[in-house]
Specification:
Blueprint lengths: L3 E8 L2 E7 L2 E8 L7 E5 L2 E2 L3 E2 L6 E8 L18 E7 L4 E8 L16 H9 L10 E2 L4 E2 L8 E3 L11
Parallel strand pairs: 5-11, 7-12
Antiparallel strand pairs: 1-2, 3-7, 4-5, 4-8, 6-7, 8-9, 9-10
């Protein structure tokens, strides 16, 4: 995903154009999904899903602010929206049978000292960031679907009021 280039600003006697790298996109690919029964929720909002050419397969995405840079950003008053908490909502029972949590960075604050040597290592690093804990299985209110004009096939958490109703 390309990063947004912001306007020019003075910086140390020169002019600089800051890049906002704090916005990220997570994509989901769902198999054997029953769209009429289940809703994929992220941070209490419904993720818009689009069917693929395969039966029961859907794709969707979530745009969010991953971290708070110390310099100019596109959304200066918006705090980081992490971790992402995904839930599967069952319309037939009104409950969440399961979900997962996605912290943007390593929860222990660690970082890798080198780039992945191959695609297998990169995939292993991505998978290690998803945790089957942190969600709230059980009864829940059906997530609200809010479509963005800019990104109609993704939940844009930057543009949505706090869906949990918290202040």
């Amino acid at each position: 995903m390309p990063w947004h280039v912001l306007g020019e600003e003075p910086a140390g006697g020169a002019t600089a154009r800051f890049v906002d790298s704090s916005v990220e996109l997570v994509r989901a690919l769902l198999s054997d999904w029953m769209d009429e029964r289940f809703v994929l929720a992220c941070n209490c909002g419904a993720v818009p899903l689009t069917p693929t050419e395969r039966a029961g397969e859907y794709v969707g995405g979530v745009h969010f602010k991953a971290w708070q840079p110390p310099v100019s950003v596109l959304h200066p008053t918006l705090p980081a929206q992490t971790p992402l908490v995904f839930e599967v909502y069952d319309r037939w029972t009104g409950r969440s049978p399961g979900g997962m949590t996605y912290p943007v960075s390593h929860p222990g604050g660690r970082s890798y000292e080198h780039f992945p040597v191959n695609a297998n290592e990169a995939e292993a690093r991505r998978r290690s960031r998803f945790f089957p804990i942190g969600h709230a299985p059980g009864s829940m209110v059906e997530p609200v679907l809010v479509r963005s004009r800019e990104h109609p096939r993704a939940l844009d958490l930057r543009r949505v009021e706090d869906l949990r109703g918290n202040d």
